[in-house]
Amino acid sequence: MQMALSENCPSPGLTFLLLLLALLFHAGVSDLGLNFYSESCPRAEEIVKEQVTKLYQKHGNTAVSWVRNLFHDCMVKSCDASVLLDTTSRIVSEKKSQRSFGMRNFKYINTIKEALERECPMTVSCADIVALSAREAIVMLGGPYIAGMKTGRRDSRESHISVVDDFIPNHNDTISLVLSRFQSVGIDVEGTVALLGAHSVGRVHCLNIVGRLYPNVDPTLDPEYSEYLKRRCPSPQPDPQAVQYARNDRETPMVLDNMYYKNLRTQRGLLLVDQQLVSDPNTSPFVEKMASDNAYFHHQFSRALLLLSENNPLTGDQGEIRKDCRFVNTQ
């Protein structure tokens, strides 16, 4: 027998369901999803890919910046594009943090945003641009394509400058502290070792290296490598504004591969935290495995990056969709 529901008197079960849905909606609870913009902006992911490719062809170092953007954004409280906010009368930018030293190419995020705004105004979040540009950059760097990257993030209306140091590890931190920081956002030891493999690409300012070179060379450094570093960083007090850099991976410096781990086995870790991966019994087995198997490294890197990209995102009616990634919509 078919039951008819009164329009004015819904069943208790339906009433509960409607109430639950309302509570979820108003709380901003909404899962990220694959192809989130399939209806609202069908070409969103394609546009990001097009723009990242163009920018990479003009400015190759943008690829490293996109990957670092995701790390700095998602490690600090939420994947919410807070890292992109500029300083205003009521916001102090996370870019002011010492942990953000050396980050650049932020202006090109707005290049991508402007292309998306022309196609679908006020639809695609800056937080999703951070995630999608990182995915495309990883491919540009010879890494794996991360097919499971979800979208649907929304943008923060505030900076998290006051807590950046509580989430982003320092290059001189102990490996146990680094592991605990990643663990706090759901990344296990294996995933942490894989994510640190991003140090395979790009370069590091001498300011972050000289502590291992002066006044005495760190005995865990390979002598030939330490000589290279001293040539790159001849002063124990480098100028932070000067272009003084060294590379972790001199063989394939712009390829996201397992050369990083091979270098660690020969005492050629650039930062102190890098070299600790070999000496710590919790991480050294994964270093060995990744050094001998590039496909395994790529698999673990993809897995960990996906987890990081989904750290506590703003969704539903939380946050906003910024028109300009540098500023909240209402100043």
Question: Can you walk me through this structure?
Answer:
Helix content is 43%, strand content 1%. It has a two-stranded antiparallel sheet. The chain is mainly alpha-helical and 331 residues long.
Helix content: 40-55%
- Total number of β-strand segments? 2
Which class of secondary structure composition applies to the elements?
A: mainly alpha
Q: Indicate the overall shape.
A: globular
Biggest sheet: strand arrangement = 1-2
**Distance, first to last CA:** 59 Å
Low-confidence stretches: 1-10, 18-30
User: In CATH, what is the homologous superfamily of the largest domain?
Assistant: Peroxidase, domain 2
CATH-derived architecture of the largest domain: Orthogonal Bundle
Strand content: under 5%
Oligomer: single chain
Q: What's the CATH topology label of the largest domain?
A: Peroxidase, domain 2
Average pLDDT for all residues: 90
Q: How large, in whole angstroms, is the Cα Rg?
A: 22 Å
User: Largest sheet, described in full?
Assistant: 2 strands, antiparallel
Q: What is the number of domains?
A: 2
Please identify the top-level CATH class of the largest domain.
Mainly Alpha
Total DSSP helices: 13
Order of secondary-structure elements: HHHHHHHHEHEHHHH
Catalytic activity: 2 a phenolic donor + H2O2 = 2 a phenolic radical donor + 2 H2O
GO molecular function: heme binding; lactoperoxidase activity; metal ion binding
Main location: secreted
InterPro entries: Haem_peroxidase, Haem_peroxidase_sf, Peroxidase_pln, Secretory_peroxidase
